[in-house]
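User: Structure with magnesium ion, tokens only please.
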Amino acid sequence: MNKNLKNFFYPKTFCIVGASSKEKSIGYELLKSIKEYGYTGKILPVNPKANEILGYKCYSSIEEITEPIDLAMVVVPKAFAEDSIDKLINKNVGSIILVTAGFKEVGKEGEEAEKRILEKINKAGARMVGPNCMGIITTFSEISLNATFVAEKPEIGQTAFLSQSGAIGAAILNSLRETDIRFGHFVSVGNKADISENDLLPFWQEDKQIKTITFYLESFVDGEKFINNFTDKKITKPVIVLKAGRTSSGMKAAQSHTGALGSSDRVVESVLKQFGIIRANTLNELFNSAKGFENFPLPAGNKVAVVTNAGGPAILAVDSLDKNGLKLAELSEKTKNKLREIVHPEGSVNNPVDLLPGGTAEQFKTVNEMLISDENVDAVVSVFVEPVMVPALPVIEGINDIKTKKPLLQVVMPLPEFWKNYRKNSATKKPLFRNPEDPAKVLADMLFYSNNKKGKDFLAASKSSLKTDNTGFLQPNEIEQLTKKYKLPSVNNQFIKADSVTKQISRIKFPVVVKGISKDVVHKSELNAVKVNIKNKNEFKEAIEEIKKSFAKKKIKVEEFLVQPFVKGKHEILIGGFRDPSFGPMIMFGSGGKYVEVFNDTCLKSAYLSDDDIDQMIDETKIGKILNGVRGEKPFKVSELKKIIKSSAKMMLGNPNIKEFDLNPLIITDDNSIFAVDIRIKV
Ligand code: ADP
Ligand code: MG
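Assistant:
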């Protein structure tokens, strides 16, 4: 494990540059939280004016400290920040947290200062968290460090949490007594000048005390690097990402917030899914699922039993199961018979099982046991709404005591006094969920994780093969090189100079398609420049004239005519790709032709494809379903299509200079052949 990274979370000596004796100042509150939380290492506060603060001996300067510093936190005003960094580097400090704000997030000058600091850090081989952040926490008892100015006492857990927003981080810390979130490591990374999710993802994978990795992100510093941790199969722990900035206005907010560049949400959505990374939509979902992974076994399947003492919440729970792709389990007859002996005749022994408001602690426990041991059941959701006559705690504790290898999640909607009582008197302190909708997403996330854990083989990036001095769209001969190399099924293209077109007529084998070509025309059919099914010389001449005319109307010159064999098609599909600024090479498959945007039937994935991914691209689109054969139709040779998708992905991975490409359409004929009649590649 990298020593500098490790020292952020496991420091034996901790220096605070800018410790203060002024109450309510960051330098004071920070020291206070550290003291109150009982840090096990040695604290080295630096303050030129004070002899001691909160009982700790102060050093008047960094130079005055003689012992090695594992971790230093800089909270001085911005004007002194660079100087402090210099001095820490001089003292060989390898791990620095720069809390001070006023850098990249405020404009040009700040950005330059941040760059200077980063250069120094890099040159020294040190690592830095921040600037513009709120600190770090390790709850594990060998360290017990709360180096934030939020004087809460977080409980020990096995989740690691990275927050790109300091405010979100602080809000989470302030909510701990309410939400019962537990974590092992917490870090606010601020501007991510140096340390980002790309450092902490592999670090936490390696740290044996961490079980689940969670991120609140407003941007990915390098999405491709992030996902390469997964394509290289380095990550086996559950990773949950809450990515803010979904809508375009949200995106703008994210940009101005930390000066970070966001990437478009569709790319994020598809990439996370492809690599088995869980996406949370809200903070509530993020921590609910983290609690799920930390406290419950993984479900083996998607069949869920629900038990309740109230109708409404159970309906909401079931709706949410459905929305998250889970199913109500079909209970076995054996279970139903046993249930009949317990459940009130007016209740229900079908899933969801209803115990009615009179359901007692014993009944809840027994019924939960029966459900969880039914072989048709993969998970149980128990919903308890506290009525006046049945106190909640014995119900909840009874269920908590059930020993099982399946997840059993409880929703509790109690009287207000309950929570304090539970925290104080629960023996297991297992997490409870507050909303009947909550457990479904938790179970779905756990199932998603275990389904993806099996591990797939992804395409790897390969050496560049395309050499071109061109920028913009590739020339026909360059395209031909690529279609040959990657076996893309192009048609015979005959390019004829506009002025010599009539002389060439005798060489044409009808029927053909004629297209007018000009640098200035990207979408030819918009200009009426594609004439299909031209059967003879006369039709050909007419087509040429018409194309010339419609170009002339727009004051564009036809440079060349492209003559292709006419392919009588049954379906038109699209395979395309582009390079996302953050996540790199992406591949798209779907319904093609002139109406791509209208049909909007495409599936997008990173070009680091596995064979499963290619299957999914086909299965998830309507055109893919049609090609797989509907209503007794003979299916298309989908294997052929899969090969083309795969080699298109290889083309993206192997040629970093390709920015975008489009095979639109690929025409599929009646006799199951496939031809790319329009290929555009941009470098
Ligand atoms: P653009 O995309 O620039 O408008 P295309 O070359 O894709 O032009 O042609 C537009 C449409 O014309 C295609 O979607 C397809 O329906 C038809 N088409 C193009 N080339 C052929 C061909 N060789 N055989 C049959 N139809 C074709
Ligand atoms: Mg086209």
